[in-house]
Write a sequence for this structure.
């Protein structure tokens, strides 16, 4: 059974077909990259998987559970975690508080009114582990507002990891990172492979081809090809629609 | 919550100063001060309640005077029917207030932003006109209470005792909120203030936490309303006029939104300035006349100045100074 299975997903915005009958499946532990030119509907696809927008048609099945109509928090509870293309963290908290809050989302209910959350090791220890993993451990006590852009992107990933999600939906995790930072993320994702199922939306083609087990190419909301990196590289339609331009850059 | 040394000193001086009011009032022979400051404490308590949703949860409720009214009318109506046991009144007020807050909150929290402001206002107005229509309980004019609540050996007819009861409740709620905002619950509430979308995507069912915060905040205002009825021995629909909801917001913003001490500082500052301006005697008759008649406009100027100069309010400014 596939870990995540999307069938016949359709989303219209007025006259625009943003998601055009997308079929997508993620085997357990694989990294499945979704690539495509700007405006191909990649983020719209992730938003439907995470539940922030509801599809007009189609089905989303995760771990054998039909999540098509569930709100975002239920999907997160089921083990589907997402990161945001535009860093979306809690600006008035420290790095550790941000990450601990992600842990807290999956550590029982939060109707606890007396004990300071910062003193709960059940929250801070997994948070510190997630920060160590992305290389932000020495920045744990820093307020998020004073992080550099690359560090904020790392925090974004740490927070998804801290939720303990089994399947990660990563929306351009390397956007705006320096080459060194990107390399670190590639190494991290390499390490996470197998442990997590990952849907990766990314513009950095070197990273995508290095990491992905399979790729799906999206053009105007429609998947035009799915296959291994080699198959995609040699796919005529893909070369035409997408990779051709990329190689000229 | 980190705060600067100046903020800590301010908080201690403010709380200690409030503790000494009855003694000072007796010393300078101004018994009226005790009544004035009881009023200040009551509004501080209500503003603190409002601040939980307004400051820590970014839910702009423009209808919290409704809960002051529920507290006051619970005392008024029960005492009218001969139930003057304070504990019974308390239980009834909290039960009614809690149920109303649960229902109103569940509806209002389906919206956000401007719609939330308007719908909370609409509910408060509904309750206001309900109170106006209660002929038996004085209707528009309100009604005089036969007596104050009976609380075992505590005689609330003693102004000093009533003052310290309000003070003790204020401290208790302050302590509870100080713990609450750092607890898991507080982190969820503050997380929702900053980025509710992210909270949901991480797996929080944000609605139930925001609703709980709304109910807690309402119950604190219910308590304040009960004290208010006991202070004035009077209840009237004007307690839940929309202007009162507005004043509570002003106090909170003036003192420092999303800080623990802010609402206390704001309520104290606003009510003292009101009192001072409305009875100011500079010795220049025409000027005194203008000030005493148009003190509301001058308060407007005071508020604008504080918000422009200090931006985060009186106490919020001290807290932020650290960084």
């Amino acid at each position: 059974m596939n870990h995540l299975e999307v069938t016949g997903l359709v989303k219209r915005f007025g006259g625009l077909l943003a998601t055009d009958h997308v079929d997508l499946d993620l085997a357990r532990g694989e990294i499945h990259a979704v690539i495509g030119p700007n405006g191909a509907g990649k983020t719209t696809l992730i938003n439907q998987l995470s539940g922030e927008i509801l599809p007009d048609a189609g089905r989303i099945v995760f771990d054998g559970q039909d999540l098509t109509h569930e709100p975002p928090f239920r999907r997160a509870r089921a083990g589907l975690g997402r990161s945001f293309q535009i860093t979306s963290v809690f600006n008035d908290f420290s790095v550790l508080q941000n990450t601990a809050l992600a842990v807290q989302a999956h550590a029982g209910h939060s109707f606890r009114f007396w004990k300071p959350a910062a003193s709960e090791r059940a929250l801070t220890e997994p948070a510190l582990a997630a920060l160590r993993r992305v290389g932000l451990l020495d920045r744990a006590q820093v307020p998020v507002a004073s992080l550099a852009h690359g560090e904020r992107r790392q925090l974004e990933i740490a927070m998804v990891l801290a939720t303990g999600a089994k399947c990660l939906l990563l929306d351009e995790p390397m956007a705006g990172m320096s080459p060194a930072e990107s390399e670190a993320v590639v190494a991290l994702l390499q390490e996470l492979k197998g442990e997590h199922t990952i849907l990766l939306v990314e513009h950095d083609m070197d990273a995508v081809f290095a990491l992905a087990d399979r790729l799906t190419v999206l053009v105007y909301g429609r998947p035009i090809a799915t296959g291994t990196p080699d198959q995609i590289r040699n796919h005529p339609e893909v070369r035409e629609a997408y990779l051709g331009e990329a190689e000229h850059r | 919550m980190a705060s600067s040394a100046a903020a800590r000193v301010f908080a201690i001086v403010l709380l200690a100063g409030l503790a000494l009011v009855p003694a000072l009032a007796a010393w300078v022979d101004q018994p009226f001060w005790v009544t004035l400051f009881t009023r200040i404490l009551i509004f501080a308590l209500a503003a603190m309640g409002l601040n939980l949703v307004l400051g820590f949860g970014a839910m702009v409720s423009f209808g919290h005077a409704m809960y002051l009214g529920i507290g006051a009318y619970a005392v008024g109506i029960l005492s009218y029917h001969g139930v003057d046991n304070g504990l019974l009144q308390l239980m009834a007020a909290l039960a009614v207030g809690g149920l109303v807050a649960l229902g109103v909150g569940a509806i209002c929290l389906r919206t956000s932003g401007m719609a939330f402001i308007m719908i909370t206002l609409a509910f408060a107005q509904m309750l206001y006109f309900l109170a106006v229509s209660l002929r038996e309980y004085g209707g528009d004019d309100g009604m005089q209470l036969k007596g104050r609540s009976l609380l075992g050996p505590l005689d609330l007819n003693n102004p000093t005792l009533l003052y310290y009861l309000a003070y003790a409740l204020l401290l208790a709620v302050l302590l509870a909120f100080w713990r609450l905002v750092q607890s898991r619950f507080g982190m969820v509430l503050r997380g929702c203030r900053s980025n509710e979308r992210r909270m949901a995507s991480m797996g929080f069912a944000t609605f139930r936490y925001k609703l709980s915060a709304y109910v807690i905040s309402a119950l604190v205002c219910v308590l304040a309303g009960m004290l208010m009825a006991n202070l004035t021995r009077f209840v009237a629909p004007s307690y839940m006029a929309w202007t009162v909801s507005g004043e509570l917001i002003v106090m909170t913003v003036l003192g420092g939104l999303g800080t623990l001490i802010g609402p206390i500082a704001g309520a104290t500052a606003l009510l003292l300035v009101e009192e001072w301006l409305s009875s100011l005697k500079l010795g220049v008759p025409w000027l005194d006349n203008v000030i005493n008649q148009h003190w509301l406009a001058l308060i407007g100027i005071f508020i604008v100045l504080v918000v422009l100069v200090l931006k985060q309010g009186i106490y919020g400014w001290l807290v932020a100074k650290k960084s």
